[in-house]
Amino acid sequence: MEWYDAALDLLLGGACHGCGRPGRSPCAGCRAALTPRPHRLERVPVALVDPDVRLAAGLFYRPPVPGFVIAFKDRGAWQLTDVLGTALLAAVARLRVPADAVLVPVPSSPAAVQTRGFEHTRALAAWVARRTGHPTARLLRRTGVVRDQVGLDARARWTSQRGSMVARRGSHPCRVIVVDDVVTTGATCAEAVRALEVAGHRVVGVAAVADTVRPADAPARRGTVAATR
After folding, report:
1. Residue 106's closest CA among 93, 123, 129, 92?
2. What is the pLDDT of residues 77-92, one digit of tens each?
3. Global pTM value
4. pLDDT of 203
5. CA distance 96 to 21
6. How many angstroms separate the CA atoms of 149 and 224, rounded?
7. Angle between helical axes of 81-95 and 120-132 (0-180°, round to 10)
8. 8 in helix, strand or coil?
């Protein structure tokens, strides 16, 4: 409906967050590219913490996906919750975990939450929880500032992240699904798994909206997209 898109652009100044086309976001073309492609993946740091933890992502982090993730996380595009939530839901389903597993979002830094006005991973976890029946809990918190990870390899990122999270202990340890937006090297997820298991919880999986590994490259080469938590 090109006339509708043109009207939105004229009246509201709207544009697709993926390709910049005037009108609705996502546009028809980008919406097709956002159809979930749930897949299992491996990340060395997570395997070093617990080799039994399974990881899955709903999308590959390649255009137009980055535009939507960034717009949702950093530009307040809350209307994209359904789009990204659908991808995360597909990743959770791909893990085939117990129905009582708890969705635990990877926490952003307090500074990032203050700047954005919300915690994006928590919002996505809540969206999935309403549609799956999986409970959600804020078991993780940041304990320090992680230095810029641009240009670091997987082990260097893990070293940078290690010790940056702590998990709340409960009277009844949970089976947990760690929820994140984008998996790059897996260092952030590895730290989340470590902190949760130190607190006595059992991590059964990690689910992410997107994965930086491209199909043609997996598993030989991994992406180096930097994410500001």
Report:
1. 123
2. 988 999 999 999 999 9
3. 0.83
4. 96
5. 37
6. 9
7. 60
8. helix
Structural domains for the chain: 1-33 (no CATH), 35-211 (3.40.50.2020)
Long-range interactions of 78-83: CB distance < 8 A, separation 24+:
78/123, 79/25, 80/17, 80/25, 80/26, 81/123, 81/124, 81/127, 82/127, 83/26, 83/31, 83/34
Report the alpha-carbon distance of residue 201 to residue 189 in Å, rounded. Answer: 15
Residues with Cβ within 8 Å of 120's Cβ and at least 6 positions away in sequence, in order, are 72, 73, 108, 181
Q: How far apart are CA 62 and CA 38, in angstroms?
A: 14
CA 89 to chain CA mean position, Å: 11
In sign, the C-alpha dihedral spanning 187, 208, 47, 214 is negative
185-197: average pLDDT: 93
| DSSP code at position 78 | G
Q: Which residue has the higher pLDDT, 159 or 197?
A: 197
Asked if residue 39 has pLDDT above 80, the reply is yes
d(CA 124, CA 47) in angstroms, rounded, equals: 25
Q: Is the pLDDT of residue 136 over 70?
A: yes
